[in-house]
Amino acid sequence: MASTRAAAGSGRRRGITFVVTAVVAAIVIFPVYWMIVGALLPTSITLSTDPPLIPTHGLTLHAFVQDLTARPVAHWMLNSLIVTAAVSVISMVISLLAGYSLSRFSGVGPTSVGYTLLLARMLPGTMLSIPLFVVFGKLGLIDSLGSLILADITITVPFTTWMLKSFIDSVPRELEQAAMIDGTTRLGALVRVVMPLTLPGLGATAVYAAILSWSDLLFARTLITNPDGWTMPVGVTSFIGAHDIDWSGMLAAGTLSMIPMIVLFVLLEPMLVRGLTSGATKG
Amino acid sequence: MNLDRRQFLHRAGLGTLAVAGAGALGACGGGDTSSDGTMTLDFPTWQGDEAGVKTWWRQAIASFQQTHPKVTIKLQQVPFATYTDTLTSRFSAGKAPDIVHLPTTTFGSFAAQGWLANLDDRLKGTDILGNWTKVQKTMMWDGHNVGLLVLGYAPVLYYNEKLLKDAGVAVPTTFPELIAAAAKLTSGGVYGYGATTTSHPGTYSEATWMVYGAGGGWSAGEKLRFTDPAVVKAMDDYRTLARYSPKGVPSEQKRTLFFDGKIAMMIEGPFVYAGLDKAAASVKSHVKLAKAPFVQQPGYPSNSIHVSTQASKKKADMAWEFIKSLTTPQTQASYAQLYGVPSPRRGAVTQAMIDKRPELGLFQSVTDSAVDATPDNKDIVTNFSEVQKLIMDACVRLQTSSTPTATVMADLQNKVNGAIK
Amino acid sequence: MTDLTAAGRGVRRRGPRTRWGRLRERGYPYALLSPPALLVLGLIAYPVVLVVEMSLRDGRAMNISAIGQEPWSISNYVDVLTDGDTYHSLWITALYTVISTFLSLLIGLGTALLLSRDMPARRLLRTLILVPWAVPGVVASVVFLFMLDGSYGVVNWILRSVGLTEHGPQWYFDPSTALAAVIAPTVWKGFPFFTLILLAALQAIPDELYEAARVDGASAAARFRYITWPAIRGTTVLGIILTGLWTFHTFDLIYPLTGGGPDGATETWAIRIYTEAFSFFHPGSASALGILSVVLALVVVASVFPIMRKQFF
């Protein structure tokens, strides 16, 4: 008897929690919803004194079709995908190596590199973009996606290295020592023993790096001056013309630009929750 | 704009190589002419999508390429909002475009950096200077022509005849009349006047027209004139007009509102007339033009074309050939025809063209009689973007606060003094 | 069995036997660190040196490769530090950073507490609430610009419909509301990071602790005070530092919206650095401001670093 009442009580609690959370989620997601509405309707309807919150007619895919046929949105998307994939992979490799080294070795070298990485997080990107522009100019890398990849890595690696370091801290040293005694090299032990145990951390690294490089506007607009090398964020801003703003086109491009990140997010999100906080929660 | 496989591999490969530390490999290409003697000239512009003028640029490029079969001119559309930043970056990295197209507002900063080539010798052998608009004077830097003006204009008064008639208001011919008309016309969801009422370069243009149109100016040589009674009065009038305008609108939106019949009057450049095509059917026939009610017509440079000092001799020569091809009477006539604006070449707009499009006659006559509305203070021109921002900020303050105009202008004068010293 | 033997052998032979082996073992940290070290040297240290040099050179040449020809001088620092706008902009930076971070924390904590409870469709709701984090900053800017249009935006329409205002604020036009209007998208994009890390921290708290507290008759407030808060404090500090630094440096959520205007109302140091360098051609002042902002960030972070170090590293 008592237990059924408790069950009913907890059922009601679940219900209330669900309703409250759903309302919060609806508010949070409203800007995304309104972006999609804005992409599907002409501005004469959405930018008016009486916009329909739930539009029922006049919806058209025109802006999307226009984006994909008359504007090089697919091309921007491809550039963004190249940059994002490269930044994610390189960030994972570098921060795994560096994080391992910071976790397992002490000494002046590793420590100073570690702290310089932390210092790098203090640099405003707007400041970094000036000298990076000079450096890449000297290397002849301006206008290449390579410059963008390198610039984005300077932002991602400092954080992901420390994140993976704390992750590797929780992997017992004995495991890799055992492997090394069995004849594996240290690198082999890192790849075969440590890496599988840090998969959530690597997943979090990949998502973090991907989100950061996918949304980068600052480096993309300073380091890439040729429209052929534009990424999605730069492309989105190009809908603001000298004489007018193509709202539907811009919002359609914005909607398209979210899709790859949402897919990645849904796939890797569980890893993200564990990965980002291994260090934080163990303390 | 499709990325072919080779380009893709090139780019993807670059990324990898760069990371491997082989950065220098990125510097491939970039020679002047390839082995078969062909040459590509880089031409970024913000006008590649702009109605009317985009056709003119494309036609000019096509006919140039026809007479120069080994030359390709690569027009790149760059959005206006990022145009100056992009060009600044390219110049400071030593990667200037071959053909340099500038909004005249940024001309001074670029000239001061020594980025624009002296064209005196090239101009000498041509008939250009003798036939060009006097606003070309703004292209002088240290006594030399470092560019060619593509468009200079004087703004005119656009008005909605029906709205004026309904309110019993005559077309204003003086500034007090303009203000009185704006006040009377503002009612029932209609705004009497259309000013740019947000942080937008449009406020700078409008303030400049008001000040120079009233016989004032931002500077008289060394001396700054922001606190001159005439300038303060002109800014105060501008402030009053903004009161009869919709709030928070950039120039683009106020033009749309005018053509939608929600604004009765505005002072605007001739290129805005092209927007009439998109006007609501009920408004179209009521849109009329008149000389703006200024004491003197402010002549305002819009944009100009230059040769970069970073270009190789060969490319600079070819870029000049292209610029020269833009100045022929036929090309200039088609500029006026396609874009609907006065052409900088005198006599390019013929009576026959005016008969067909009467507005061209008005545009041309106000431009011909205009005084130069660019500050004559070299420090202002050199630090233009900073001064422009300060003036824009002052306009926002005038429109959103109740601080007396004289106080705002005194503060502005101090700030400009600080910025240019 | 084999494991035991291996471990036993490991104890006996700690470290490599040969000299080469020892050398190689000592070289490992450097070999493993060389990619990030190269990155640090080439892409962080060298640019920083360049910025320091630019900040100490007089003159305003934008041909930065030729900056070495200008004379040494501290005039850039003098200019920046004697300019009243610098302090106005510092105040804006402080307001923007503190308010954005605080609101992100509040909303992040609230949503994390909600999502840590049992409910139907939890995974879906969690994903929906985290989505803004994945939206590129410039896209977020564009959407808010669209929604907060003074005359025709949907937000003002909602405000008018429920009778809160007659006309609605001119969000990005009016200097008194512009800062709030750029904080809104910043918080929207920033809070899910707090949700994410706090959620993980909450989930790591053993349920038994709450059970025991309930048995002892502890109130909800007491349970939060004595169980939840100690468990998430470290994560909270970490989140504040990371989000604080992120907002301190934000470019893409301010520049596309207001460019720092109207009348400087949203001009943070990060925006000022960009404008000084790329619009005003003052690479020297921009660099000086950049160096000052690094110092400022270091001082602020160093004062909370001991807590962060204990909890995170």
UniProtKB/TrEMBL annotation, chain A:
Q: Which InterPro entries match?
A: BP-dep_ABC_trans_perm, MetI-like, MetI-like_sf
Organism field: Actinoallomurus iriomotensis
The source's domain of life comes to Bacteria
Any one GO biological process: transmembrane transport
* Family designation: Belongs to the binding-protein-dependent transport system permease family.
**PANTHER family from the entry?**
INNER MEMBRANE ABC TRANSPORTER PERMEASE PROTEIN YCJP, MALTOSE TRANSPORT SYSTEM PERMEASE-RELATED
The protein depicted here goes by the name ABC transporter permease
Q: Where in the cell is it found?
A: Cell membrane
UniProtKB/TrEMBL annotation, chain B:
Short name of any one Pfam family annotated for the protein: SBP_bac_8
Gene3D superfamilies assigned: Periplasmic binding protein-like II
User: Could you list the residue ranges that cross the membrane?
Assistant: none
Which regions form coiled coils? Answer: none
SUPFAM superfamilies for this protein: Periplasmic binding protein-like II
The source's domain of life comes to Bacteria
PANTHER family linked: ABC TRANSPORTER SUBSTRATE-BINDING PROTEIN (PTHR43649:SF30), ARABINOSE-BINDING PROTEIN-RELATED (PTHR43649)
Q: What is this protein called?
A: ABC transporter substrate-binding protein
Q: Which organism is it from?
A: Actinoallomurus iriomotensis
What high-level taxonomic lineage is stated for the organism? Answer: Bacteria, Bacillati, Actinomycetota, Actinomycetes, Streptosporangiales
From TrEMBL, chain C:
What's a GO biological-process term for it? Answer: transmembrane transport
List the InterPro entries.
Answer: MetI-like, MetI-like_sf
Query: Where is it predominantly found?
Result: membrane
Q: Short name of one Pfam family for this protein?
A: BPD_transp_1
The record's annotation in CDD domains points to: TM_PBP2
Lineage: superkingdom: Bacteria
| Descriptive protein name | ABC transporter permease
